[in-house]
Write the structure tokens for this entry.
Amino acid sequence: MNNPDRIEVPAATAWPIVLAFGLTLVFAGLVTAGSVSILGAILGVAGAVGWFREVLPVESLEWAQVGQEGIAIGTSRESVEHVTDVGKISRAWLPIEIYPISAGIKGGLAGGAAMALLAGLYGIVSGNGVWYAMDLLVAGLFPAMATQTARQIGTFNLYQFLAAVPIHLLMSLLVGLLYGAMLPMLPRRPIVLGGVVTPLLWSGLIYGILAFVNPVMNQHIDWVWFVASQIAFGIVAGLVVAVQERIPTLQRAPWRVRMGVEAPGLMQEHQREPKR
């Protein structure tokens, strides 16, 4: 029967919630108690059976009232903004200009140096030694450090030094490359977003997982100095990347050309070169 005021829709059911709650209890029991998993399995089976009975062999339906609502589409903008300086490109890829990879490398190295300087200053001010922050970085790789005091951790150790330097450089370069890729997409206040907001979010993430990743560092770390060093890295790296000259993206070039792969028919200039 056709009725413009009502339509048939699937009937409401709570069985999917019961199934989801049961599966949650199954996995929660893996870290708590076996009885929790057993209860979850019972609820999961009951939820699955109840849900299937709602749709098989005949789907449960109910009538829903249809309401008429007038929708007025408008805009507060007086004009439409267009992307300029894109030549004959029919559809531009944004951002139009990006920073080269070298900009991210320079920013990562500069930010890493600023972070290392601030970390060494903290070790001196706290009296734990200039190597204190560096040793905490690799504390998870040396189980013997778990029983050492803060003053013992701050002493120079060649093996810890050889492990900390490449880890710090690698992390700095990776974050610097990330900044180089992100800053062109943040045209408004990139230093605030990249130098303050991102380090604060990153510090909060580390705070939540550090107890599992590096328990020794979690016990001895000073979070005020840690956040300050992250912000110093972000500001210095962001400033270094921001002053680098941008390069235009290869908007219409084929993928193989953008990847630097020379193929017949794609690199026309090489085809015109006379044979020697």
